[in-house]
Request: fold
Amino acid sequence: MSKFFCLILLAFSFSSFASFEEKYNGEITSVYVNSSSEVLIKVKGVSSWLSLGKTDSSYTQSMMSVALSGKVSQSSQMWVRWTANPNGSYPKVLIVSIGH
Reply:
């Protein structure tokens, strides 16, 4: 029974990571904090704003630091991965990397 449960859990974890999009060699053109304290970025070649999360999260603050570094340096060596299905909101950024 426990092997069956582990197999289902493993299959579910792989399917949850399969629903994302990414941009290699991208350039962050804007970093914005809205009135709801949500940090948004705009990536060249991506049609929508992408959300890093709320400013009260240390995880979001770390990702915002990387995004701002990429923006200020005008790096075109950014790697950004985000959720493909935002469920009526901004797509959520999962990874921001500079000089990958």
Notes: Helices lie at 2-17, 58-72. The chain has a mean pLDDT of 85. The longest strand covers residues 20-26. The radius of gyration is 16 Å.
